[in-house]
Amino acid sequence: MAAAESTAHDLIAQHRPTLDQALDTIRTRAYWSPHPEHPKAYGGEGSGSLSMAEGKAAFDALLGTRLDLGQPGTDDFVGGEVSPYGIELGVTYPHADADVLLPAMRAGMRAWREAGAELRAVVCLEILARISARTMEFAHAVMHTSGQAFMMAFQAGGPHAQDRGLEAVAYAYAEQVRTPDAAQWSKPQGKRDPLRLTKEFTPVGRGVALLIGCNTFPTWNGYPGLFASLATGNPVLVKPHPRAVLPLALTVQAAREVLTESGFDPNLVALTAERPGEGVAKTLAVRPEIRIIDYTGSTAFGDWLETHARQAQVYTEKAGVNTVVIDSTDDYKGMLANLAFSLSLYSGQMCTTPQNLLVPRDGITTDAGPKSYDEVVADLAAAVGGLLGDDARANALLGALVNPDVKARLEAAAGLGEVALPSREVANPEFPDAVVRTPVIVKLDGTKPDAEAAYLSECFGPVSFAVAVDSTGDALELLRRTVREKGAMTVGAYTTSDDVAEAVEEVCLEECAQLSLNLTGGVYVNQTAAFSDFHGSGGNPAANAALCDGAFVANRFRVVEVRRDGA
Amino acid sequence: MAAAESTAHDLIAQHRPTLDQALDTIRTRAYWSPHPEHPKAYGGEGSGSLSMAEGKAAFDALLGTRLDLGQPGTDDFVGGEVSPYGIELGVTYPHADADVLLPAMRAGMRAWREAGAELRAVVCLEILARISARTMEFAHAVMHTSGQAFMMAFQAGGPHAQDRGLEAVAYAYAEQVRTPDAAQWSKPQGKRDPLRLTKEFTPVGRGVALLIGCNTFPTWNGYPGLFASLATGNPVLVKPHPRAVLPLALTVQAAREVLTESGFDPNLVALTAERPGEGVAKTLAVRPEIRIIDYTGSTAFGDWLETHARQAQVYTEKAGVNTVVIDSTDDYKGMLANLAFSLSLYSGQMCTTPQNLLVPRDGITTDAGPKSYDEVVADLAAAVGGLLGDDARANALLGALVNPDVKARLEAAAGLGEVALPSREVANPEFPDAVVRTPVIVKLDGTKPDAEAAYLSECFGPVSFAVAVDSTGDALELLRRTVREKGAMTVGAYTTSDDVAEAVEEVCLEECAQLSLNLTGGVYVNQTAAFSDFHGSGGNPAANAALCDGAFVANRFRVVEVRRDGA
């Protein structure tokens, strides 16, 4: 057995059970994850992974270094990341000459295609395993680029992101093996001999895929596209957000290591960082070599990509306005606690955080008696205040504001209406320069035209609007209009009425939005679990794709058939 | 059991075995069809289908009538089809007021969604069964709109088109049931109670689908998009080519009958015909209600749709330039006979007909000894001449030219180079007005820049270019360039060399084109079989989708999830 064959054999033996479990789970959509989300699972004898302390040390050792990935066509090393916690990372990364790098990335495509779907899948799983072993190092990299608190950076940036990557590999594999490698075709011709053909079917990648990373969830939002493209035979060029390069640079490093060790061209995965204001994504996106683009970010640039990058398949997650309809509840405390957590987590800087809370102005019925609009809003404000009253807990939940724009929006929000809960500045003793703020809740009258401009725009950050509406029926109409016009990654609703539940479900089915109903426990509207929950629907303006489904992978490759006479 | 439930039960009992066989065959890609392609299978006691004579009578009875489909928003009846065989059809069809019809088409969406994937699939199969029973009537409708000869109109417009429709239903069903209807999700929390959610998943259609039909294969090219959209929960508005309305109008009629009988809104499938020069496709394509478009036709309008109908998923099959590389053969006679048939069938008016035959100018090796370029071309011309020497056989193979543009192109082609085989006018005793022509073969020098304009454009119709190239290597480079720049629905190659075979395969894999290698028997490069062969690749400029695969169906619907606390 040749060395490469032996490696392939080993990788399949090692990872096929995980792939099979992932394939099974995307069908059942039960709970499963191979990536532990408790810090204690990392490090220690035989674990093969860095402990929390080792991860911190590995991260510290990266600071101020040049991350030379050994890529062709590197014309410079650039970088200027400043952590939302105040640290200057001082890491520099390759800046690519695309005219050299892109052809070099295509050079390995034939061998990668010839490897076939299964070997591509297990190579991807090995990359994820290497990343998983460095989860604690990634946790710090995500924390100090996104501003997420450590625990969230570890969980969402580590195991949850790895889950989403694995999920994409499973979908990609399943899609490719729907067509067999070969077929014998024999068509009866009555008394004459049958017509016979031998057919071979090969999944072929489309070309170089471009991953345009985001600032807030560089790994979680990046891995689905990266692994879906790679697993379907495409080289992937990673262009991280300039403020969140490190997590994706480490990802590219791990991928290049594994590709090299398994006998493939490391240039199948490459990174390009950019200089401030260079806007390299715009230049790269329309190059003829780029045939797939994955993007998470603003609606403006997402729309630009969809309009101009016509040579590519473009998958976008853009802005949206997430709504929670509050009609009634049989667990008032649970509802308030659940919402308070949803609004607070990562200072509301999730694309899934609720923004508009629609409450009938005549109030709602609850297990604690009827509550007026003002009471509901005051009680929610108190719940958020209570949750974040302790600075240590507030820091652990909120993290830091990711950039000055968020802070500016937060400050401006107080002027949009009556402030039900003012934002509070929280000191971070470990990182005195971190900008930590609790959410603001602003009361708006849903029938006032001047309020509409506020609640019908995405106000990304720790800003929520408690919108008074005339009735639950009006809330549903506003929900429908919001999803249709502005898009939504999530919708929440609280009701004890079967009729209202059915009506809100119907709006979500018709407008294509993912609905969480009556969440009062430890699952939040802004969280989705890989293998089970869809992230976005791909059917409203917030995103043209969902994570993850068949549509997310099926058009990243094509099947080429070669047929010959005879059996 | 209610009436609707009983109908659903019956339809499932009746059609589920066929659906299962289709699902199995798209996985094995072996030969299968439930639609017989021999005329004798139609008609007779207990067959439930029209015989050839009954089909002719049914077609004759349609002539000169108004086909009132009972659609809302019909503001006029229009029609002006003239058969390529000279008959004026005189049938008029509904012309729609889209402002009335489109909302009416959306009205049935909820019930259609709630029916679920399986019931939608078997309703589609029942529609196909009704169409199958009228195959002989459709045969005449296809013949007298496309100009295909009767046997081809019967086979390609009947059973083969129905196969492609069924294939699309199978893919659509398989795609929708990849996600279960419901799931229980339970996430362990150490010593605490697990987190538990109940999840429901519903495939939801995107909105109204628009099918823009073509002149040459109204049913074969129309059914995949029509049935893929309908089976995934979308209403379908059919806008036929003005010269080929009848086959799709009969299709809509059958669909509306079955929808009504099975308790659904017939307006889920509707037709709109247009007045001469109205260009209604352009107006409809950009309406906000239209969320899916399927189109077969010119590159210019396909590109226009892709650019402007941004609110819709757009699936296009456009023009291409199909190449056959002739390097060597061990069955010279078989090759010539196979190519002669491919060039002649339906007067070369197939999107899959070879156009450019690339032959090394120093000649090729064959089992009949070396043959010079001139000899190969002369022998091919003789083979075509022999095949079409008898007028009756010529009429049966060629059919009629579909429109005056094809005739004009054919006449102009003789001026592009040395004519190796002149086109011959064939008299049709049954239809004296039919324009029947044999193919022209024109010799071109592949190295001459002035020849390039000819062989690098699609010359749709019975025109082939025998292009002299310096070597097989040059042929492969020209093949690559042609596919990359102009697109191709098919590629053919003849070679006895393993190295050349591998090289041509590699070009097709890299440029994403479907390859037929060394066909010398009764299968032709321009024919593909549903359930087994892909029609187009979706990866070169000739088409952005393939018939049929996961990508063709996966984005016609989205999955909406509703999750609730608790198990």
Automatic annotation (TrEMBL), chains A, B:
Question: Keywords of this protein's UniProt record, alphabetized?
Answer: NAD, Oxidoreductase
Database matches in InterPro entries = Ald_DH/histidinol_DH (IPR016161), Ald_DH_C (IPR016163), Ald_DH_N (IPR016162), Aldehyde_DH_dom (IPR015590), PaaN_2 (IPR011975), Proline_metab_enzyme (IPR050485)
Q: Which Pfam families match?
A: Aldedh (PF00171)
Q: The Aldehyde dehydrogenase domain covers which part of the protein?
A: 96-531
Is RNA-binding included in the keywords of this UniProt record?
A: no
GO cellular component: a single term = cytoplasmic side of plasma membrane
Q: Name one GO molecular function term.
A: L-glutamate gamma-semialdehyde dehydrogenase activity
List the transmembrane segments.
Answer: none
Q: Name one GO biological process term.
A: L-proline catabolic process to L-glutamate
Q: Which domain of life is it from?
A: Bacteria
Name of the molecule in the record: Phenylacetic acid degradation protein PaaN
Q: Which organism is it from?
A: Streptomyces tabacisoli
Q: Which gene encodes it?
A: paaN
